[in-house]
Specification:
Structural class: alpha/beta
Strand order of the largest sheet: 1-2-3-4-5-6-9-10
CATH class of the largest domain: Alpha Beta
Number of helices: 17
Helix content: 40-55%
Number of domains: 2
Length: 418
């Protein structure tokens, strides 16, 4: 029998000092690495897809592998079978809700339209069999420089859960779970008191409406991702307080922006009671760094006439990264509003932009051509580039999983529940 996501959360909240890992599906290579590691270490896998990464074709699909929800689900199933993974994995919507696609926010579409598009996206999530829906109505292009009123967040959250539950029941779809809240400061939950008050009021409104309570509530532990670093200030005392409150109400504490955290912080997570932590851009950075290392080897071989010629992967990928402007959301204040010309003239900044936004551009035609050429060159020389990339990704995730006491978690939960 398979374990449900709720059984994992209940186990962690009530019994075991472990933390689950929410994995942003940055590329097919990352998916394969996760399934391989899950099989080897008996890990549950929780894939958290933002609307920019995976969404319906009517919205332009996602930047990752052109995935819509159905292709995403099918490709994950196929990869699990190919690798021989028979454990538990979950499809999760990360940051679903109005204005959560960048284009919707930039276009300043009206609230009614933004909510309707969010509902449409959730419908496709549900039809595709997602296991967790993150209800995050805290992006709002009409609220700038201040927190969205908690009453607005509560109303939109309840309205969206009610919509999803109505659709699920009318279409006889499987049970799934909800995550609420946000790590963004404009979500308003910036204190312990606000966090608890939000849980209490939300649960009361959901109970009155006969709606399910959330499985996860996002809490702000002080993490913040910028460029290729975590520039926040992790607060273990606050994390412990948030965990205590979450456990009191029977929900899991979910931490976002867990990218690039050092081991001394990761190791504390299970004991602090952080039920799950999300990581996304860091995995893209690790993969891009692996490609760049392979490219260094390729260029060295060409320089020494050991292969006929090298690809132009780094030059092409760098150009695509800068021109895509996908790095803007991760940039620090000191580099905001710099022109492309200024960025190309700053080698250190250019390197960081390449590493942090490479994964947004793997599918660009010119990048695909150069990547294929590099792989062919290295394979002819006797190097296995794909295996090198997979192992580099696995090394990082395995370290996080071991810090979180995750190896064997699937079997431990199964023994308790079955």
């Amino acid at each position: 029998m398979k374990n449900t996501m709720k059984q994992y959360v209940d186990y962690i909240v009530n019994h075991g000092k472990s933390t689950m890992l929410g994995i942003g599906p940055m590329s097919p290579a990352l998916i394969q690495a996760c399934f391989e590691l899950g099989k080897e270490q008996d890990l549950p896998l929780m894939f958290i897809a933002s609307r920019n990464q995976v969404d319906a074709d009517e919205f332009g699909a996602g930047y990752v592998n052109n995935w819509d929800q159905f292709r995403f689900a099918a490709d994950l199933k196929a990869m699990a079978q190919r690798v021989g993974f028979e454990g538990d994995y979950f499809l999760c919507r990360d940051h679903g809700g109005p204005w959560q696609r960048d284009k919707e926010r930039k276009d300043h579409i009206p609230e009614e339209q933004a909510m309707a598009l969010a509902q449409r996206s959730y419908i496709v999530d549900m039809d595709a069999g997602f296991d967790l829906l993150h209800i995050d109505p805290t992006k709002d292009p009409y609220v700038v420089g201040k927190a969205i009123e908690i009453e607005v967040v509560l109303k939109r959250t309840v309205d969206l859960i009610a919509f999803c539950e109505d659709y699920r029941q009318k279409n006889n779809l499987k049970q799934f779970y909800y995550e609420v809240g946000t790590e963004e400061t404009n979500g308003g939950l910036t204190s312990i008191e606000a966090y608890e008050a939000f849980i209490v009021e939300l649960n009361q409104r959901l109970d009155r409406a006969g709606l399910p309570r959330p499985l996860f509530i996002v809490g702000q532990t002080g993490t913040l991702t910028r460029l290729t670093k975590n520039v926040g200030h992790f607060d273990d005392v606050q994390a412990a307080s948030l965990s205590r409150i979450s456990s009191q109400y029977g929900v899991g504490l979910k931490e976002h922006n867990g990218d690039y955290l050092p081991d001394d912080i990761l190791l504390k997570h299970p004991g602090l009671g952080i039920t799950a932590m999300n990581v996304a851009p860091a995995y893209g950075t690790w993969e891009t760094r692996a490609y760049l290392k392979l490219h260094e080897v390729e260029k060295d071989l060409a320089k020494k006439n050991l292969i006929p010629s090298s690809s132009d992967l780094k030059v092409v990928l760098t150009k695509e990264c800068v021109l895509s402007h996908k790095w803007e959301k991760w940039i620090t204040d000191e580099h905001k509003n710099k022109s492309d010309e200024q960025i190309f003239a700053e080698p250190e900044l250019l390197k960081e932009i390449l590493e942090l936004s490479g994964h947004y551009n793997y599918e660009k035609p010119d990048v695909v051509v150069e990547m294929k050429k590099m792989f062919a060159n290295l394979e002819k020389f006797g190097i296995q580039p794909q295996r090198y990339v997979l192992n580099k990704i696995k090394d990082g995730i395995q370290n996080e999983a071991e810090c979180f006491n995750m190896p064997g978690l699937t079997s431990r939960v199964a023994q308790l529940n079955h």
